[in-house]
Amino acid sequence: MTIFRTRFVLELVPHTSSMPRDGWVGDHDLRPLSDRGRRQADALVTAIGTDVEAVFSSPALRCRQTVTPLAETAGHTVECLDTLAETERFPQPPDWADGVLAPMAEPLGGAWSAGRMMRAMAIMSGRHEGGRVVAASHGDSIPLALTALCALFDVPLPLAIDRGGWYTVRLDQGQATVTAHPGEPA
Q: Which long-range contacts (CB under 8 A, 24 or more apart) does 153-162 make?
């Protein structure tokens, strides 16, 4: 994987405002955007722009709905990557959750989840080296990925953003920058 030696721009978008988790009955991957979230998703088309090579998403409906307006305007389909999925409370690697490593199970779960997001970045950069892509993921997965990436490249963490914003990750042959875009209120 060449993620660390490539040129690549990733617009990393936390899904926009969705129906509340509390009170939702059924599969959380089917929880849709709220009206506010749909307005935020529409605003991302202009804010991010359509000069992108591809659009990726977590399989969750709310993530796909976040980037569908941009994908359609740019003439792309949304490609789902399981590695962009929600962490589901940072599950531990099953083989390391017991025994001598049990006291470290929780941090190991965070590291495992961050690694999955880094794999998503490697997949996207491998397919679109030198390009610019958009990817929608979750409010738990994205901070893990950005923390790991910033630590790896020894760059400052960006400001935390609210729904409707996004992060630009620029990788340039061993260098990285991460920029926060707070977005506009819907």
A: 161/14
Helix axes 105-127, 141-153, angle to 10 degrees: 80
CATH code for the domain in which residue 119 is found: 3.40.50.1240
The length of the chain, given as a count of residues: 186
Range of the domain at 104: 33-129+139-171
pTM of the model: 0.91
What does the alpha-carbon distance between residue 58 and residue 25 come to, in Å, rounded to a whole number? Answer: 20
Could you state, in chain order, the average pLDDT of each consecutive group of 10 residues for the chain (186 residues)? 75 95 84 95 96 97 98 98 83 74 78 89 93 95 93 94 95 93 72
Nearest Cα neighbor of 33 from 58, 79, 65 is: 65
Query: Sign of the CA dihedral 178, 143, 7, 69?
Result: negative
Domain membership of residue 23 (yes or no) is: no
